[in-house]
Amino acid sequence: MTRLPQFHAAKWDEPLVMELGRPGARGQLFTLPDPESGVDTALPEALLRSDRPALPELTEFEVQRHYLHLSQMTLGMMGVSLFGTCTMKYNSKTSEFATLRPELAELHPYQHPETLQGVLEIMHDLDAILRALSGMDQFIFQAGGGADAAYTMAAVARAYWQDRGMLHQRTEMVTSIQAHPCNPATAASAGFTVINLPLEENGYPSLEALKAAVSERTALIMINNPDDMGIYNPEIREWVRVAKEAGALCFYDHANFNGVMGKLSARELGFDACMFMLHKTFGAPKAGGGPAVGAYGCSAELAPYLPAPIIAKSGETYVLDEDRPKSCGKIREFWGNVPQVVKAYAWARGMGAEGINLASDISVVANNYMDKKLGEISGLARSNPEISLRRMEMTRWSLQPLYEETGVDTFAVANRMADYGIDPYWMSHEPWLVPQPFTPEAGELWSKEDIDLWIAVLAKVVEEARETPELVKTAPHNQPIAQVKGEVFDDPSRWAMTWRAYQRKRAAAKA
Ligand SMILES: Cc1ncc(COP(=O)(O)O)c(C=O)c1O
């Protein structure tokens, strides 16, 4: 029997820091400059303030206490996080420590490359590791996340077709309705027309549909496999062959690499380019759209179009190759989020080829264990139940039967699970092809006991949905905040990004 935790997050009635303090309170007493020294007149008169800044006045202790309270209210979680499609991993303290060392933390990308040899070597070596895992010829780390790496592909494809004088003809990108929305969105931003293939009963689009969609107008196809439902398209080789016959470029979105790490190579399957999420698969902290890294790799044929600079080795020296006349331009400033790259490198070196292979096996076994156990809870339905093939590292599930029976939806179940100290699961990206979805992913990290706990909490919440549906619908109850109403975000008069905007909007609301 799994013991359910008795949990209550820390809850402080903590004001905003701008509302704290009182005149005269000080954390630090600065010595006033000696009038004789001339320091106070070093700034031009026009730059001197005539009034005091509107900042709260607090002691050092009060500042510490304020931020400690805030951290207790968020870090009160750190439960079991089976957040699917994002492969949550443990971010080791050792790699965190390594990136905090001044030798790395104090580097600046404008330094002369001769003084950056250590970090350039690490990035060059990670490039080599990713080449070995994918068969590609060159990686870059500029993209600030998976979606950004998909955009890199769209930009590279545009530059490639432009260079051949065929951009006016190759105007289409083909993908599936189950691709992550960033695939069609980035292709559209780069100016391509998107063709979305529907799914068949087996969970992926038919080859016939692909054949009908690709033509001399196709610039590229973008595919993730296994997809975000955990379904592996076994016809992938044929897909690439069909697309290549039509002359298109093929891009492998490897967001779900965890289930196939070390088992297949994008290049062997015929792809021209792929991306790995260092923040998901390679143990660097999650965070999309900026503080993450989507490592983008491609064949030698596409390499001239990559964003500059490329980290190369000339003799014994690492250099930043900026001289790339065919480059598609920058995707992001400098060379990307370097501490994340170093963490991913530490993870890959720590795991080794065998460890990476084994981690993939464990993640698939863990998911299939979960699949079996979840199938025993009534009110849940596995997506595409007619598929007999085992799922990979995650499975999209549905709470539709429970919803029909009790009126309790997937948001309410996630909120109520948080009352037991379980981090909310990921439901599904849009559009919801599966009603009332949830997508748990155990990965190689969580122990059998952790997974059992997660399942036991879900089973308990399903039971509560039947017995006391209001309790579940109004959850969370043991967290510092109640339900966040999504519609608030659609109304700019009800949220503010700065203290001044908050004051202005609050005054307007009162009036
Ligand atoms: C298949 C797939 N591709 C791309 C992305 C986008 O990644 P990111 O959130 O790092 O931008 C995701 C995110 O979950 C994904 O599942």
From TrEMBL:
Catalytic activity: N(6)-[(R)-lipoyl]-L-lysyl-[glycine-cleavage complex H protein] + glycine + H(+) = N(6)-[(R)-S(8)-aminomethyldihydrolipoyl]-L-lysyl-[glycine-cleavage complex H protein] + CO2
Pfam families listed in its UniProt record: Aminotran_5
Organism domain of life: Bacteria
GO BP field: glycine decarboxylation via glycine cleavage system
Keywords (A to Z) from UniProt: Oxidoreductase, Plasmid, Pyridoxal phosphate
Described function: The glycine cleavage system catalyzes the degradation of glycine. The P protein binds the alpha-amino group of glycine through its pyridoxal phosphate cofactor; CO(2) is released and the remaining methylamine moiety is then transferred to the lipoamide cofactor of the H protein.
Protein name per the record: glycine dehydrogenase (aminomethyl-transferring)
